[in-house]
Amino acid sequence: MKPIQVGLCGVGTVGGGTATVLKRNCEEIARRAGRPIVVRIAANRNLERARAVLGDSIELIDDALAIARHPDVEIVVELIGGTTIAKELVLTAIENGKHVVTANKKLIAEYGNEIFARAQEKGVMVAFEAAVAGGIPVIKALREGLTANRIEWVAGIINGTSNFILTEMRDKGAAFADVLAEAQRLGYAEADPTFDIEGHDAGHKLTIMSAIAFGIPVQFDKAYLEGISKLQAADIKYAQELGYRIKLLGVTRRRAEGIELRVAPTLIPEKRLIANVDGVMNAVLVKGDAVGATLYYGPGAGAEPTASSVIADLVDITRLATADPEHRVPHLAFQPSALADLPILPISEVETCYYLRLNALDQTGVLASVTRILADQGISVDAMLQRPSDEASDDGRDDVVIITHLAVEKRVDAAIAQIEALPAINGKIVKLRLEHLNG
């Protein structure tokens, strides 16, 4: 049978991995797809470097838009990244009736609504499994495998750089800045790590999963993002003493009032499987009403793991290329006409448990005042820990750590403001969220 012709745009780490795996496993892939899948042409700005990766068997040009218009190309694979050239490339490919595969989470999270609408009009597919969690097929699980379920929540460790840093801080008791420097030396963190450590990367991925899980448009601009750059080693240590581990966790949850969509450093009970996902690995936990909690684990980046997801999308499109567009799996799992208009809740309306660390004078009545303020806001205490402060061990001050039961964030913030005003309290209170993730 005639091979399906692919145009590969971007021959970097993932592009090179995609070409390698397609060539190495060509027979197995053809058996699964029903016909061979071949790279007809590739585009890269640095032709010399791309030629070293691809060899001489593939035509190579430096104009990606020419691939989007190429008469022989049936599927355009966008691995350029960013939202400028990549967006123009994807929309041009769609306009020319070509299917698209992309690993670009920023593009889908910020412009997915426009892209999917154009693809729907043109009757073409846009596949993006590789945009979330690298080689882990979590998009397919949400779109297809769990389609019988009413998804209740999704929680994920979906940024390997941050997870590596937090693992090292826990294992070595090191400060954030020291571990970040090590991560940069090892190549796990960029020279400018902001995108990873401040939650932007995880936020893009979470936005995509939230849209698929709940049948809503992608709304990255409404996601709450809080990174790990201000996290202190003391809080990682106290969390461990209380039986928790801190992870940069993306959480999206369906509530009666709307959808929670947030990324922040979060305590997880150490007995949960997801709490033991360390290093650069990723994991996503999905809770459905019928299936319960399901866990998806694996490498969240890398040449061949991500290529695995890119090629899975190529196989899907090849299988479905001749199918009636109205009967394909919708881009966001729900039929476009059935997307829900559910609001994304502001962080002040989030309901979860909390970790609070305050530095207080060790004198009678201080803790009673603190717990009374919490009680006045309807916040009950689950656990408490008191330890001599490392920073001021000789002035009669202690670190007091409080774990709360479920509470609404605005009430917790109100209580914190009142507690910080007490004369016996020194400085600002550290607030972290806590998720039990018990299914």
Give an overview in words.
- It contains 15 helices and 17 strands.
- With 439 residues, it is an alpha/beta fold.
- The protein folds into three domains: 4-135 and 303-338, NAD(P)-binding Rossmann-like Domain (Rossmann fold); 139-299, Dihydrodipicolinate Reductase, domain 2 (2-Layer Sandwich); 350-434, ACT domain (Alpha-Beta Plaits).
- Strands 7, 8, 9, 10, 11, 12, 13, 14, 15, 16 and 17 form an eleven-stranded mixed beta sheet that branches. Strands 3-2-1-4-5-6 form a six-stranded parallel beta sheet, sandwiched between helices.
- Helix 5 runs parallel beside helix 6.
- It is elongated.
- The model has no long low-confidence stretch (mean pLDDT 94).
End-to-end separation: 47 Å
* CATH topology title of the largest domain: Rossmann fold
Helix content: 25-40%
Structural class call reads alpha/beta
CATH architectural category of the largest domain: 3-Layer(aba) Sandwich
Name given to the CATH homologous superfamily of the largest domain = NAD(P)-binding Rossmann-like Domain
Low-confidence parts lasting 5 or more residues at pLDDT below 50? none
Give the overall pLDDT as a whole number: 94
User: Total number of helical segments?
Assistant: 15
Total number of distinct structural domains: 3
- C-alpha geometry: elongated
Q: Give a quick account of the main beta sheet: strands, pairing sense, barrel closure.
A: 11 strands, mixed
Cα-atom Rg, whole angstroms? 24 Å
Strand residue percentage: 25-35%
Count the beta strands.
Answer: 17
CATH class of the largest domain: Alpha Beta
